[in-house]
Specification:
single chain, alpha/beta, Rossmann fold, nine-stranded mixed β-sheet, 9 strands, globular
Length: 180
């Protein structure tokens, strides 16, 4: 189940979520369990007909495909980025998203921040995500970013481990995924 405070939403065919994801860009899907994220992403991908781009920063999603635990759909393109190929692959993704509608999934914030660990890199990553979201708005391409996070006592979400803060803007949808 995907929860956006204060209301709880249950939608087995995920159509409500697809509508919500198109209203905000980017969308951040947080969870305390990586398996729940992958399970949700797989259901979301299976429920959509539009082409899907997965930016697999932590290699978790592609690992499930390699192991055969998840069946890869024909409309899914997977990009595995690292510090060396980041700019070239991001340019390719931006080019694709600027020409047609995609569902873009960046899995995950935690993987991004493991690759790019200094403050300047974090700013660069946030700028890249906001650029991708801006381009996605023109083609009505929802951008989803996952992350393993926890809620602090002041109701602020932080990424695990390390406690990095989540990017925010007026157009960002933030959701917490939990299994019920």
């Amino acid at each position: 189940m995907l929860v956006k405070n204060p209301e709880q939403i249950r939608d087995n065919n995920l159509k409500q979520f697809q509508i919500k994801f198109k209203q905000n860009n980017p969308n951040i899907i947080l969870s305390s369990e990586s398996f729940h994220q992958i399970e949700f992403l797989n259901r979301l991908i299976n429920s959509t007909e539009e082409p899907v781009i997965i930016v697999d920063m932590d290699l978790l999603y592609s690992g499930y495909i390699q192991s055969g635990m998840i069946q890869k759909k024909d409309n899914v393109m997977i990009f595995c980025l690292d510090k060396i190929n980041w700019v070239g692959k991001l340019s390719e993704i931006i080019s694709k998203v600027s020409k047609e509608r995609f569902l873009v999934i960046i899995n995950s914030f935690n993987g991004i921040y493991n690759v790019f660990d200094d403050f300047e890199s974090a700013r660069f990553i946030n700028s890249c995500i906001m650029l991708l979201a801006s381009i996605g708005n023109h083609t009505k391409s929802p951008i989803l970013i996952t992350g393993i996070a926890r809620k602090k006592e002041n109701d602020e979400w932080v990424l695990l481990p390390g406690g990095k803060h989540i990017i925010k803007s007026e157009k960002t949808g933030v959701y917490f995924l939990k299994k019920v």
